[in-house]
Amino acid sequence: MTEKGIFTSGRYGEQTTTALLDWYDRVRRPFPWRETADPYKIWISEVMLQQTQTSRAADYYLRWTALFPTAEALARAPEEDVLKAWEGMGYYGRARNLLTAAKVIAATLGGRLPESYEELLALPGVGPYTAGAVASIAFGLPVPAVDANGKRVFSRLLDLESPVDRSAGEAAVREAFVRILPRDRPGDFNQAVMELGATLCLPRSPKCGECPLSGICRARERGTVLLRPVFSGREKGETAEGRMIVLLREGKVYLRKRPPRGLWAGFEEFPWEAPPAEPPLPPALSQTEGADFGLVRCSFTRWRVSLRVTVVPAPDGLQQNVPGGRWAGGDELASIPLPAGSAGVRKMLFRAGLIACPSRRPKAGAE
Description:
Radius of gyration: 24 Å
Number of strands: 7
Oligomer: single chain
Strand content: 5-15%
Shape: globular
Largest sheet: 7 strands, mixed
């Protein structure tokens, strides 16, 4: 029996399905999205979980569904409110896609998510994984939802030598997944695979002794667990160092707005530069001097950027020399969404008392 064909035997498929679902029923973690059958809320959770740790996503999920309990409520929300609710999770395109898709759902589908895989896949920002997860969990359709956890689990079960981030490896994983996906509990099975990958079939320290599938795992049998999955060559990440400038004037700070396309499109932020990851600052800012305020780090695409923060009293004529920015006081600064690096500096400013923090002001009548 070849690695690709390990599940062509009914015995292997039945053993895997039964063992995995029995294990999942015993140990699954009690996340809030597992307590609902609402397709909208399941969709929100799956999008959040794509690039966010599960423990962090739970808090965001509860806040989000309280603010935007339905697709129609989300569709009515201003983009700034949506981005603010997403702040801290990064990859803000996910939030914008949710808003765009919610508007489609509200305008053309009566506020309800479509019930077929193909229609889900047609929504803005919805890819094969998200469509499969929602279709199987919310609507009980026998569709696989193969994420990074699923690729890792099945590459080890198959002892797959093909890279899982290339078409041949992806096809082998998906074929094996489809062969054993139970028609009566597809959503639970998809979640069980994710749970296994997140808790036991870990990338660097797999807990094979606790795994319900250890008896049929080819990689464990052959001693290749830590060699699976195989990935193709990846572009090496780059590092950059630069400067972020906090300009102060009469209790306000200066924010610039990013272009409508590209990195953090349309967001406001403290001005910064980190060649070659960011174009240079205008001379009116790059030549300023001030007090060192610490270091912040942020990541985007393949870059890891360290920024030395400098607090500078605003020079005269700044607004004329640096177009496209504005001044914001403490109340407004606290309410607007900021990219990760600027959001970290905002906390530092509030903590140091350089800008009035709304939550720390004394109440009327207090001494």
